[in-house]
Automatic annotation (TrEMBL):
UniProt-recorded name of the protein: Molybdopterin synthase catalytic subunit
InterPro entries documented for this protein: MoaE_sf, Mopterin_biosynth_MoaE
MF-aspect GO terms: molybdopterin synthase activity
Keyword vocabulary terms for this entry: Molybdenum cofactor biosynthesis
EC numbers on record: 2.8.1.12
BP term (GO), one: Mo-molybdopterin cofactor biosynthetic process
Amino acid sequence: MFEVSSDPIDPMLSRSKLVNDAAGGFVSFEGWVRNHNEGQSVDALEYEIYDSLAKKEGAVIIQEAIEKYGIKEAYGIHRKGFLNIGDIAVWIGVSSAHRDAAFEACRYIIDEVKIRLPVWKKEHYSDGQAEWVNCQACSHAHAKRHGHDLPAATLADH
């Protein structure tokens, strides 16, 4: 299951959705809003999300992870709207019989979420400016890790 929320993410509530008596391990990832990016001082982030498509594609990504890594359960949630420094922007959790599968599946899910979901991020800087940003490096690192090919034009951009 994958959700989009305007409300703060509660890690313990999210974790409770993954309890499974057949699981021997649990791994989670929390993406926090930090106070800097690429030399800029950041005061806050703002996320816009195409909710229905994000939920649908997020569910596909989680199903892929279940099939690829043999995990028991997986759940993800992404915030939308205005977030302050320290807020959780994205939370991914995985329960599995074995830790290796849980770690790998969690990494796979967050990597896929970062490049496949219709999520737009605006950084609000300390100097009063705001800018929509894109992480091209995220796509390149993910492609390398998971053996995907990127178009030559995309590779040349970086």
